[in-house]
Fold:
Amino acid sequence: MTLVLTLTSDRLIYKLHPELVHQVEQLLFSKGANICSNCWLAQGMAVEINFDGIPRDLALESAELFLERIPVDKNIQKNINRRKKILLADMDSTILQIETLDVIGHAIGKAREIAEITEKAMNGDIDFEAALKNRVKLLAGVNINQLIEFVLEKLLITQGANTLVKTMKANGATTALVSGGFTVITEIIREKLNFDLCYGNTLSVDSSIVTGNLKPPIIDGDAKAAILDQECEKLEISKNDTLAVGDGANDIPMLTNAGLGVGFRPKPVVKNYASNIIEHCDLRGILFLQGFSESEFLT
Structure:
């Protein structure tokens, strides 16, 4: 079966060029590939090389070794069923460049306590649900409207997020924001980027004051994977038709459950589970992995 190696970069840092692509093709031939052809998806930014005759793992290991000093993403997948019918995206440090809870912590003078718990949770050192509840307790007494303002003041949407959502929707895919963050924020991001669906955790509030508790259900890693299953049933699609993207340990169940699981600038633990990793390109890299060319993007 034909495989496809997708190379992506940030062309402001490193421009992909035909000579490099030729060198990678020659590398694949040297490892036993019997066919090789390339297609540029975006000049200087994304190219795919179709090949056959050698196992995926050998090809990926060889490409990673050859390109280890070059800031280029290297991902290999089967060249079938690449355009997915649903996108499930994490919010914090994925669709957004910030961790919303850390921003809130900084604003209320509890940055260190909250950030320490966040880091341990995202690296998988402590249980996500326990970590979330511990951080939420630190928010007790904060006015919910102030909390929203704290986040909106520091809001940074990741480059390519708008293009990713728009382009997938235009090609018939459902888009879902699936976050361990708070619904008061996820609903704002859903509306801003026009996601079809939105899942998040709900803060318990009494007269506009955060109580320090959450309303069930809790959206943790297992819940994210269950949401993927649930949406497959609703849409009557297979898991092969799903795409999930995230960066932290609580995204691992969703990433491993999806047909295409992408670790986006992932924490070290996630690299052990995500079959595809984007560290250099922005979120448009997820479109390139599906075979979209830059000329097909909606912005």
The chain has a mean pLDDT of 96. The chain has two domains: 1-80, 84-299. The first strand starts at residue 3 and ends at 8.
